[in-house]
Amino acid sequence: MKKILIAAAMAVSAAVYGAEANLSVEGKNPPLECMGSYTPLSINLITPVGIPPGFWNVKGLQIGGWNWVEDFDGWQIGLINTTDVFRGWQLGVINVTRKMYGVQIGVVNVIQDNNVPFLPVINWYF
Length: 126
Fold this sequence. Notes:
Blueprint: H1 2-25, E1 38-46, E2 49-51, E3 57-111, E4 118-125
Parallel strand pairs: 1-3
Antiparallel strand pairs: 1-2, 3-4
């Protein structure tokens, strides 16, 4: 199992760095050029330190210590999850988002554009 996880991480890393190399050849400067771009997987310690490096919107899965994303679709798992617009599931100790279509599970759950902006354990908006 450990070898499979390492191989998967290396494959994701190679794909991300290959895409960045292609952008560099075209004269673009990632990750600033990629602010409006999406990645299917983000693994980070604290955003922007991770794979892929920088600030990317995510459509898929994000795992990390402190996740920050402007636009997110999918699953977000971390100690602290913060987003601007979120569609999906957040699982963490602290979950904060401005606008959400989905479910938050954690100790502190905040959806700012909700009638009840704070609920412990679980919070949702559809």
